[in-house]
Structures are given as structure tokens and as C-alpha cells.
UniProtKB/TrEMBL annotation:
<dbReference type="Pfam" id="PF05207">
    <property type="entry name" value="Zn_ribbon_CSL"/>
</dbReference>
<dbReference type="GO" id="GO:0001671">
    <property type="term" value="F:ATPase activator activity"/>
</dbReference>
<dbReference type="InterPro" id="IPR036671">
    <property type="entry name" value="DPH_MB_sf"/>
</dbReference>
<keyword id="KW-0479">Metal-binding</keyword>
<feature type="domain" description="DPH-type MB">
    <location>
        <begin position="22"/>
        <end position="77"/>
    </location>
</feature>
<dbReference type="InterPro" id="IPR007872">
    <property type="entry name" value="DPH_MB_dom"/>
</dbReference>
<keyword id="KW-0408">Iron</keyword>
<keyword id="KW-0862">Zinc</keyword>
<dbReference type="GO" id="GO:0008198">
    <property type="term" value="F:ferrous iron binding"/>
</dbReference>
<protein>
    <submittedName>
        <fullName>DnaJ-like protein subfamily C member 24</fullName>
    </submittedName>
</protein>
Amino acid sequence: MCQNCVLFYDFTEDDLRNMGPVDAQVYLEEMSWNEDDHSFSLSCRCGGKYSVSKDEIEEVTLISCDTCSLIIELLHYS
Ligand SMILES: [Zn+2]
């Protein structure tokens, strides 16, 4: 797990309510691939970054910003 991000697994609806609103729903294609650390990232409106590693991308659905409390939901094609 990378040091700059917190990843959330297996959240229930109650957990989501406690965490606050999801800021955006994005598809993987909308995120930027970083060759350096083999991760996908997306800029947050606060100037921070959502980041998730290639290894975790399959299991992660919620990604938190590294500098604020906003969360995005990663959508997977079914
Ligand atoms: Zn942010």
C-alpha cells in the first residue's frame, strides 16, 4: 500500500454514510497512469491526488484524496 493514500475495501452503505459523500465516480480510463511508481492517479480539486497502485486497482472501489477528505468511487466495467 502506498504511503500517500488510504484505500477502502468492502464498505457497507453505513460506512459510506459515515465517511461522507463520494465526490465523483470515475472510470479507470479517466485516471492517469504513472510509469514511475506503477500507479493510477487523478488530481483532486484541492490540488491533492487520488492514487491507487496497479496491483490494487482490481479490488479498490473507493479512493481517498491524499490531502483532503474527499473520496472518489472507481467504477469497473462489468
Ligand atoms: Zn483533495
